[in-house]
Amino acid sequence: MGAEPQAEQSHGDLDDHPRQHGLASPWQHTLATSVERSGVGLHSGLQTTVRLCPASASLGRSFVRVDLPGRPRIPAHVSALHQTQLSTELAIASATVRTVEHLLAALAGLGVDNLSIEIDGPEVPLLDGSALEWVEAIAQAGLVRQDAPRARYVLNEPVWVQEGDAFVVAMPAPELRFTYGIDFDLEAIGNQWQSWSPSQHPFQSAIAPARTFGLADQIEQLQRAGLIKGGSLDNALVCGTQGWINPPLRFSNEPVRHKLLDLVGDISLIGLFPQAHITAYKASHRLHTAFAHQLSSRIAQQSNCTMDG
C-alpha cells in the first residue's frame, strides 16, 4: 500500500525529538519507503525476510504471509492472538506468525502506526535479539506524518491482571509511563527495575538495544520441546550460576529493559497506548497479552476513548 505524503518527513537519526514522533506524538505515522531485513527465527530456526511497507492512515499494522496462497493478512491486534509460549504468536485461520514482539515494540516505540509487514515464513527474524536492527531499518526508511490524529484513551481507573505475585497494572497518570520489575535467584540478574517515559527518553537508546536472555539450565529442556532452534550466543544473552556466559551487557540491567521492550510490543496489540502508568512485575507474554485483552475490553466500554481519523 502507498503512503500518504504529508508535511513532516524524518530520515536517519530519530533520537533528538521524542515528542515529534514515537509514542509521545499526537499524529499517526507510516514509513516514507519500504525496507527489509532477513534473519533466522528464534524458535523455528527458519530463515525469513520481512519487508516493511508504508500503509494509509488508520489502517493499523498487519502481517502479510506472502509465502502462502492468497497472501493472508494477519492484523497485529489482540483479536488475532493465538499463543504466547516464550513469544507472542498471531493467527488468522491457518495462517500464523510468531515472535512478533520485538518488531512491534520497535514500530510502536518509534511511532509507526500504519504498516503492511510482508513476511515469507512463519516467524519474524530474531536478528541480534533486541529491537535495535528494526530501529535502524525504520530510520533508514524514514517516517512520514499522516493527516490523522492518533486515537487517545485517558485511563480513569485501575486495570490489572495478576497470577500469584506476578502482575501487570495500569494506573491513571498525567502521561504514558512504563515500569517493569523482575526477580531471579541467579545473582547476575537478581532484582531489577526500569522505568521509561516515551516523552522523556527515546525508545531507540533507552529500550531498543536490550537483548533477549535465557537461563543456561533451561536451554536443553527448551530444545527438547522443539523450541529455540535459532537461538545462539550471538542473538541471546545466557546466564548461568557463575554469571553471564556471553558478556558484555549493553546495560547493567539489560534483562529488565528487554522485558519492558516485550511489554511495549505486546501492549501495542491493543492498537493504542493509554495515558496511564503501566507497571509489570515478573510477568510473561501470557500475562502481558491477558492485560492487553483486559484493557482493550475496558477501552471498548468507555466513552472517553476518542477514535479520531
Secondary-structure-based class equals: alpha+beta
Tell me, briefly, the overall form: globular
Give the number of helices: 6
Radius of gyration: 18 Å
Average pLDDT confidence is 92
Sketch the major β-sheet.
5 strands, mixed
The helical percent reads 10-25%
How far apart are the termini? 18 Å
Q: In terms of per-residue confidence, which ranges show pLDDT below 50 for 5 or more consecutive residues?
A: 1-13, 304-309
Short note summarizing the structure:
By secondary structure, this protein is of the alpha+beta class.
Detail the topology: elements first, then pairings.
Layout: E1 9-10, E2 27-31, E3 35-40, E4 47-54, E5 61-65, E6 73-75, E7 81-83, E8 89-92, E9 95-98, H1 101-110, E10 115-119, H2 132-141, E11 143-149, E12 152-153, E13 159-163, E14 166-172, E15 177-183, E16 191-196, H3 203-206, E17 213-215, H4 219-224, E18 237-240, E19 243-244, H5 254-267, E20 276-281, H6 285-301, E21 305-306
Parallel strand pairs: 5-10, 15-20, 17-18
Antiparallel strand pairs: 1-11, 2-11, 3-4, 4-10, 5-6, 7-8, 8-9, 12-21, 13-14, 14-20, 15-16, 18-19
Helix pairs in contact: 1-2, 1-5, 5-6
